[in-house]
């Protein structure tokens, strides 16, 4: 596919429209698309399959394709309006110190392959989050940070929580990831 790198340079999510087999003989294995997108086009946000004779249901492995964990189904989409079937496991009390609902401000990423971007994929109390693409590797470190001078008043707070999510697909670190939260108070990091 030509133009993939140009699309990446836009730093925006993008899709492949109208993908499918070259003919309608019913022999195309749609699970090949999942493998190709993950290995060759990993930054594609989604794609639309052709219909009629080119559709997954009229070709091989439609069930495996449509039920793969990398394919999002309607019950997995959280629009932030209480329509998700997922259970909220994060405590809902507390004060949100930074919301990305109005953009990402001065936030930057280190050792990321894309982003950071404002995202509504993982919302907390109706607030957007910060998202970045990384290439998971053994012993690698990644950072999302801001050097924006803030006016947060943290006096009296004993605990601060940051929530992080990792996409379920492409996770090759034996299911383990750790994160640290650092805050600079004056000239000291805590």
Automatic annotation (TrEMBL):
Keyword Hydrolase: yes
InterPro entries, sorted: Galactose-bd-like_sf, GH, GH26_dom, Mann_GBD_bact
Molecular function in Gene Ontology: hydrolase activity, hydrolyzing O-glycosyl compounds
Signal peptide (UniProt feature, chain positions): none
Domain GH26: 1-75
Keywords: Glycosidase, Hydrolase
Keyword Hydrolase: yes
Gene3D superfamilies membership: Galactose-binding domain-like, Glycosidases
Name listed for the protein in its UniProt record: GH26 domain-containing protein
Species annotation: Adineta steineri
């Amino acid at each position: 596919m030509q133009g993939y790198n140009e699309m990446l340079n836009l730093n925006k999510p993008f899709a492949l429209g109208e993908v499918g087999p070259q003919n309608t003989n019913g022999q195309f294995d749609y699970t090949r698309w999942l493998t190709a997108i993950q290995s060759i086009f990993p930054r594609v946000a989604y794609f639309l399959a052709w219909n009629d004779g080119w559709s997954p249901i009229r070709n091989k492995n439609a069930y495996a394709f449509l039920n793969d964990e990398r394919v999002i189904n309607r019950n997995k989409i959280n629009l932030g309006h209480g329509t998700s079937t997922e259970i909220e496991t994060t405590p809902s009390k507390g004060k949100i110190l930074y919301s990305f609902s109005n953009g990402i401000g001065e936030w930057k990423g280190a050792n990321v392959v894309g982003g950071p971007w404002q995202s509504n994929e993982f919302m907390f109390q109706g607030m957007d989050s910060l998202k970045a693409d990384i290439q998971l590797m053994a012993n690698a470190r990644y950072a999302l940070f801001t050097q924006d001078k803030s006016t947060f008043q943290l006096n009296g707070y004993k605990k601060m929580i940051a929530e992080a999510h990792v996409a379920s697909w492409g996770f090759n670190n034996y299911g383990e990831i750790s994160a640290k939260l650092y805050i600079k108070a004056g000239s000291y990091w805590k």
